[in-house]
Design brief:
With 291 residues, the protein is an alpha/beta fold. It is built from eight helices and 17 strands.
Length: 291
């Protein structure tokens, strides 16, 4: 099998997966992801920095990418900050058409990669057309600001959700993974109470979003059999967040939620739910070619 290029993007596709995705060559998500690889570059780098068990995680992705038609799959086994300065690893990233970031601990990922030559190399490869994709922690870390802690059962309390700088691939959103399965609605509601300008993007398991650059903000397209939940707090009308003490429960008025299934989308810039035909038009308006 060989990769089928779905679109000639001026910037590489950015794909966030909610975790527990089907890791076979029949997977809708993995096939779609690999289809965006540059037509002349089927080499894949799998970055396992977030994982505490990289030698167990990597072979699963090596197998699926080989079955999808990768000409070479490279294990980017970056464990320490000094590894993120290694010239051979940076050269390997520069040669890849797809860079895949596995799950694990997003704080470990940002600690190791933040401010590093390796992260800059990944960002540059995307500007040159390479796909950058991540699952679970690898998805949560993609935004400029990320969640790294906060128990779902206790999250709708002031200060219950911890946030930090992410990898900075996309602005204006905060991503949460395993969203429906781990009951994380209140985590994004707490984020919206303190930061209404951020759109919360909750990605269910075996679901993903493709993040396209729009004129006023990213355009999301849902793919896969699972759900994407968008939490929009931009029109929040009242909240006790400024008066509450840390640990106090929060009251919020007018938080809007949308549920997306495959083909549906959301325009972050205009805060609009998009039907499949509107997703196609929005992508055309953003000058993104897709088959």
């Amino acid at each position: 099998m060989t990769a089928t290029n779905e679109g000639s993007l001026s910037i590489g596709a950015l794909i966030a997966i909610g975790g527990a995705e089907d890791k076979t060559s029949d997977s809708e998500i993995m096939k779609r992801l690999f289809s965006y690889a540059p037509p002349d570059n089927a080499k894949v780098g799998v970055l396992t920095t977030a994982s505490g068990i990289p030698d167990e995680v990597y072979p699963q992705y090596e197998t699926v990418f080989e079955e999808l038609g990768a000409t070479e799959v490279i294990h980017l086994n970056v464990r320490k900050r000094e590894d993120a300065r290694d010239s051979a690893t940076i050269d390997a990233v520069r040669s890849c058409g797809t860079i895949f970031i596995t799950g694990g601990d997003q704080l470990r990922l940002t600690h190791v990669l933040g401010g590093s030559p390796l992260l800059e190399a990944i960002r540059k490869r995307r500007t040159e057309g390479a796909v950058v994709a991540g699952t679970s922690a690898g998805a949560a870390a993609m935004s400029a600001t990320m969640i790294y802690n906060g128990a779902a059962a206790d999250a709708l309390k002031k200060g219950a959700v911890n946030m930090s700088a992410g990898l900075g691939f996309v602005e204006g959103i905060v991503i949460d993974s395993h969203f429906l399965e781990r009951g994380r609605f209140t985590r994004l509601m707490e984020v919206g109470a303190t930061n209404p300008e951020y759109t919360g993007v909750g990605i269910g398991e075996d679901a993903a979003v493709i993040l396209y650059p729009g004129s006023r903000g990213p355009i999301l397209e849902a793919i896969g059999p699972g759900h994407i939940i968008v939490v929009d707090s931009s029109d929040l009308r009242s909240s006790n967040v400024t008066d509450a003490h840390n640990g106090d429960p929060l009251a919020l008025e007018h938080v809007i939620m949308h549920a997306l299934t495959s083909g549906h989308g959301f325009d972050v810039g205009t805060r609009r739910f998009l039907q499949p035909d509107e997703v196609d038009r929005a992508k055309r308006d953003a000058r993104i070619a897709d088959s």
